[in-house]
Amino acid sequence: MTRLDDERFMSMALDLAKRGQYTVHPNPAVGCVVVKDDEIVGQGWHERAGGPHAEVQALADAGERAQGATLYVTLEPCNHTGRTPPCTDAVIRSRVSRVVVACEDPNPLVRRRGLNSLHEAGIEVATGICGEDAIELNRGFFKRMSTGMPYVILKVATSLDGRIAMPDGESKWISGEESRLDSHRLRALSSAVLTGIGTIQKDDPALTVRHLETIRQPDRVILDSRLSISAKARVFDDSAQAYLFTATNIEGRKQLDGISNLEIISCQGEGGQVGLTSMLKECAKRQMNTILVEAGPRLTGNFLRQRLVDELVVYLAPDLLGSDALAMFHLPGITRLTDKIPMHITHSECLGPDLKIVLARTNSKIC
After folding, report:
1. d(CA 95, CA 114)
2. Which sequence positions are flagged as catalytic?
3. Cystine design at 36: which of 49, 69, 116, 315 (Cβ 3.0–4.6 Å)?
4. pLDDT tens profile 240-263
């Protein structure tokens, strides 16, 4: 096989992996193909947490044809027993002659153990084929495993002059139907959706995925420094787990007793507010890979000012709302160009009448 052949088949494995990205949380999305005599004889992907991994699916599909074949997999095969047996055992039993891996497992407790097991079994191993694409596909998982922090996406719908609501708070709808559908796709891809108490009290959002078929709803993360949220808030329905972060004594939670899918966590930061960095670390401990922030200008401004946003998604509507409308972010203190928060555009596309712009924070590191 040439490197071009390896890249071609690994690209196919990556396409398979994408089929599981809405369903495998908190696991990474993984795809696998088994190739013999330049023909795919088996394929599979990890469909959901607790289910068979991609390698096992592909080898079962290949059957006896796997002997002497090359196996392409987008993430290092696991070598430990979790909810499923080690994938390396299945790979070794199949008697494939070569394994091509896009990237190593980012978990420092298991990294390279799978590769070493395959080497010791006499299987030829190649790594790094389409590695950047594989990491990008599971960027939240890689960041959480490498840094102990989730990947943070901040989403905002805004007018051409950078306004998100009228002076009286009216904001439905600034963006068009296509943009709103795309934002629900972002929710479906996220481990959790995060908002603040201001948005809860103003809009009472459910923060659920709608308009798309999904087998899971993202967790809800609410920041409420003074623990003033109502037990009747829609985020406390039984469709998903809710995490309430506060800066006050959690003993004052009596009004929230009886909500079964709620965990309250105290994370005290400066000025009596929830500490954002410590909050994100707590989210990572709860296996949240990617968090989508949908909040008001003060909270989103704090995320940006503290350099906690990895990606900014802007849905830009071709309208002007005027100087009295609410600005996109609250970012006081930026008085010089040297104080700016640098970002760069990674993608843009038209969604109906709107322009979607995806930006990455300069110097943001996944792993």
Report:
1. 16
2. 55
3. 69
4. 999 999 998 777 567 788 888 999
